[in-house]
Amino acid sequence: MTTGITAEGTGEQERAMRQQQMASFGRLIADFSHEMRNHLAVIQEANGLLEDILVMEGTEGNSVPVLLKETAAQISQRVRRSADLCQHLSGMAHRSDTPCSSFQVNDLVAELVIFLERSTRSRQISLQLDQGQGIDPIYNEPALLQHVLYQLYAFSLELLSNGQTLIISTAIGTVQTKGGVAISFRLGGVPKLDLAELSATVSAAIASLGAKLEGLQQEDLEVTEQGFAGFCGFKLLVPSLPVA
Q1: What global pTM score does this model have?
Q2: What InterPro entries does the annotation carry (predicted)?
Q3: pLDDT (tens digit, 9 = 90+) per residue, 102-144?
Q4: What values do phi and psi take at 130, rounded to 5?
């Protein structure tokens, strides 16, 4: 009887974790669509400007070549940015094709930060990325890790006020992570935080990765040249799992 209850409870927890993972993906897609609409609006506006410039052609004293060059450059910039966003979206969508795989955490984090730019901008939060060097690929579940990182970002955002700073950094893991990676979140202007306030579903997702979440110690924060003094934060220790 006890075994059946435990199995049922584990199944419910797994379903809740996967539902929350899909919700995280949905919010990232929503931010992506808003950002794409912004770029398309600028392209549409620039196209209207081109039409106006063509109407001006032949009038005395106009500067059509200069205006055309500036407008074409603006369109080109927005098209490149939109193409980059679509490429990142494709990468994120394909992460769930294979539950576990070998991947570069720096690439995953950098991609996530791109999708978070809009929400941090709307909150007037300064989002900074500090990527460590020499980090080897890890074998784990990339889609689940991206979900966990998004939830940790959302948790951090709730603690931050307008004008404050969030720094996400990566570093080579310790012996504890078995060749994995440490992903830190530093919150500027937040005196303290309580990791116990994270939902049980997020904690279950962290455990499913074989990862561990712990608060940053004072020595992890006092890096004066980076301006980390006065920050609090936490780090996620993500291991590289054995290849089955």
Answers
A1: 0.68
A2: HisK_dim/P_sf
A3: 999 999 998 888 888 888 888 899 999 999 999 999 999 988 8
A4: -125, 100
